[in-house]
Amino acid sequence: MTIDAPSCAETVLEAIQQVVGFSSSKDQPIALHEPDFRGTKAWTYVKDCLDTGWVSTAGQWVSRFEQQICSITGADHAVAVSNGTVALRLALHLVGVGRGDEVLLPPLSFVATANAVSHLGAVPHFVDIEPTTLGLCPVALVDRLNSVAERRQGCIVNKETGRRIAAVLPVHIFGHPAQVDELLKVADTWGLPLVEDAAEALASWRGDVHCGLFGSVGTLSFNGNKLITTGGGGALLTNNAALAQRARHLSTTAKQPHPWAFDHDAVGWNDRLPNLNAALGCAQLDDLVRRLDAKRALAERYVQAFADVEGVELLEEPLDCRSNHWLVSLRFTAEDPLDAQTERLHLLESAHAVGLLLRPVWSPLHQMPMYAASPAGSLATADIQAQRLLNLPSSPQLIKGFFT
Ligand SMILES: *Cc1c(COP(=O)(O)O)cnc(C)c1O
After folding, report:
1. Among 266, 219, 223, 262, residue whose Cα is nearest residue 246
2. Which of 200, 329, 394 for mutating ligand 1's site (highest number of atoms within 8 Å of CB)?
3. How far does CA 290 lie from the centroid of its chain?
4. Ligand 1 center–CA 105 separation, angstroms
5. Are the C-beta atoms of residues 273 and 65 closer than 8 Å to each other?
6. What is the pLDDT of residue 404?
7. Ligand 1 site-directed mutation target among 110, 136, 172, most atoms within 8 Å of CB
8. Residues 6+ apart with CB under 8 A from 301
9. How far is the CA of 205 from the centre of ligand 1 (A)?
10. Contact present, 169 and 294 (Cβ < 8 Å)
11. Which pLDDT belongs to residue 124?
12. Which residue from 30, 121, 219, 318 lies 20 to 30 Å from 95 (Cα-Cα)?
């Protein structure tokens, strides 16, 4: 049975409005995830930067921010950098990805995942996702490696392109942990380093391991729309002391420590997070638990509101995982993908008309011009899911009374 698209949109819209404790309008829209510093010490911390003159890429707030990230995630080391894309580029460089290499990654992600690979002169190689977590599929990864990869002189080479395969790069989508324990086994079998894009997964756990800490190194983003924001920012997470030290060195122009001399021993980057931004991050991390609780409560309200709505389902927290519920996702379940797409379009139109700024999931990366010629296995699941998914307003402050 197909559901009438306009009436499906209306029912879904009612359910959303029932959950969101505020009414939106064209003039007062509600976005998917908005920064909010009320109830934090952001003013005090930022004022300290201005009063002391420590506004740039060193200072006590950067160190405190890194320590807070370590204590939240259980990582031995965190290195704060200027954004999540830079964090990924640095992480990939540190595990040896370079010009002409291929990196295995999912096509359903924010474009920055593939861009970070390209920034190193390497090539994204797309492998399909699985529909429960929307993350890289361990079975598809095994199949793809078995069909194209070959061991040659200590390297893994793509027989079809002749390029070295240098790393596996799973992404934890919308705060839901990918099946990274299984992915790690596959990567280990082939001797490939695993780098996790945990940009959306601060405070998300698979079992008792925080996202980003399964493989060699993981990365976070603190962009304005993420769970917590530093304005712009990112971090590397690792339990490898040598890797963390190298990350610090390369992100600060590879300058050898000395009171006055400018001696640099590698081509480094200027990637560190300014103290001002770190101060904002500290203020939000102080308040993280309360924000996570509010987001969990919001996600539960959505579950209740959608319990009887036909034609859609909410993406669930994966088994044995703790998601941060960064974005609550709705999946249109109509059998025919074209029906699902029509229903989604109707909902987007009617929601935007009343200032509810819902967004569909990203367009798959292999459909974008710069990645259309990238190597890829079958991407059937990614193609199907990309037509069905849409995200709902998920800011913690949407819970009524959050700031009182
Ligand atoms: C946000 C995001 C990034 C990039 O982070 P920026 O801080 O915006 O550079 C990378 N990957 C994913 C999955 C993201 O959501």
Report:
1. 266
2. 200
3. 21
4. 14
5. yes
6. 63
7. 110
8. 19
9. 18
10. no
11. 98
12. 318
Cα–Cα dist 344/331, whole Å = 9
Angle, helices 337-353 vs 5-19, to 10°: value is: 50
Q: Which atom of ligand 1 is nearest to the CA of 88?
A: 10
What tokens does 189 get?
Answer: 């079998």
How far away, in angstroms, is 21 Cα from ligand 1 center?
28
Give me the mean pLDDT over the 232-253 stretch. 98
Under 8 Å between Cβ of 191 and 212: no
**Average pLDDT estimate for 95-103:** 98
Mean per-residue pLDDT, 346-372: 96
Instruction: Tell me how far apart the alpha carbons of residues 191 and 84 are, in angstroms, rounded to a whole number.
Output: 26
Instruction: Kindly state if the Cβ of 277 falls inside 6 Å of ligand 1.
Output: no
The one-letter code for the residue type at 94 is: L
Cα 345 from chain centroid (whole Å): 25
Give the strand order in the sheet containing 328-332: 312-314, 328-332, 389-392, 359-360
Q: CA 344, CA 129: separation in Å to the nearest integer?
A: 21
Instruction: Calculate the average pLDDT of the chain.
Output: 95
Query: For ligand 1, atom 2, which residue shows the shortest CA distance?
Result: 199
pLDDT in tens, 157-193: 999 999 999 999 999 999 999 999 999 999 999 999 9
CA-nearest of 95, 85, 93, 107 to 370 is 107
**Given a cut of 60, is residue 249 above it in pLDDT?**
yes
